[in-house]
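Batch manifest, entry 17 of 40.
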Amino acid sequence: RMVRVESARQMLAAMLRESRGARIIIGTAAVVDYRPARVLTGKMKKTHGPISLRLVRNPDILATLGRRFSRRGGVLAARPLLVGFALETSRILPRARAKLRAKHLDYILANRPWLGPRRTRNTVWFLKRMGRGQAPPLRGEHVECWRHVSPEEVARRLVGRLGPDVSKNTLPFS
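Output type: structure tokens
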């Protein structure tokens, strides 16, 4: 089902409403981190001097969902698997690991920007959260590096990794 939105706040409201009963939430839409503090209803006229634009932070949709579905009081309520993405220009794995924890995600895929108009392949790291809220080690069986993959191949591999956790109706951590 498609729900059309025009702002990050509308997307957050739609996700909170539509996520009830979901088994998997894959946060692929990246909304901007900031928005103008004030929206004009008409055209802004030119001035001779400089202008300033005050920005305010947009809600972090996936982090909000992660908090909503996180453990409460040591009891794990029924919750969907949460998948996020981390586009990073440096320190890719440490930053992806931090996002995995901070946003209460089950999985995160991390990569550098796909630069250039003809760039069709990239290297993507797949991290799976394991055991008692701990993120996986930076090296080891819970981190996979998918080299030179297309977006279609990333999607195929992701679905393949999610399948066992969904079909067992279990979460990837104990």
